[in-house]
Amino acid sequence: MIKIGNVKAGRVRIYKFNSFKALTKKENDIRNDKDKGNDYLLEEIAKNESIRSIDRKYLYYKDKEGKVIAVNHKKNTVIVEGVNIITKHTKPSVANQNGGIIHQEAPIAISNVMYSLKGKATRIGFKMDGDKKVRYAKATGEVID
């Protein structure tokens, strides 16, 4: 252990030797993969696809089906039609001269939605069809693209 700082002023910082350890290339790659988040989920769900909400946080929206309006790759979120509706109070402006209360969809985490195939939620996998990478439904094995 290393103690750095003024003990009387109460500004002592204690460092463990392990925190100074240099990471190996493999450990660094693992740490970087964790920082990326759920990027693999973003290529599974695309715009204008039918999805089903599996979010338990808001029980009102659980098992609701809708169409994807937008996908935000940086924040790992999607905006789904008819799911997670919020009320927004707006002032009168040039674009909206009356102002008032507007109901609009808010983004939800990509991990809280599943692809909907024939009304049932299913996971999506990838496989090679010849020399092409295609998506398929893991429940039925049916090719989506």
Question: What characteristic shape results from the CA principal axes?
Answer: elongated
CATH class of the domain at 45-117: Mainly Beta
**Biggest sheet character:** 6 strands, antiparallel
* Low-pLDDT ranges: 13-20
| Total helical elements | 2
What is the averaged pLDDT score? 77
Distance between the termini: 57 Å
| Secondary-structure element string | EEHHEEEEEEEEEE
Helix content: 10-25%
Helix and strand content put the structural class at: mainly beta
The number of strands is 12
CA radius of gyration is 23 Å
What is the CATH topology descriptor of the domain at 45-117?
Answer: SH3 type barrels
Order of strands in the sheet with the most strands? 8-5-4-3-9-10
- Named at the architecture level, the CATH assignment of the domain at 45-117 is Roll
How much strand?
35-45%
What do you see in this structure?
The structure is a single chain. This protein is mostly beta strands and 145 residues long. It is 11% helix and 39% strand. It has a domain at 45-117: Roll (SH3 type barrels), CATH 2.30.30. It has helices at residues 25-36, 39-42, and strands at 2-4, 13-15, 50-53, 65-72, 77-80, 85-90, 100-105, 108-109, 113-117, 120-122, 124-129, 132-137. Residues 13-20 have low confidence and may be disordered.
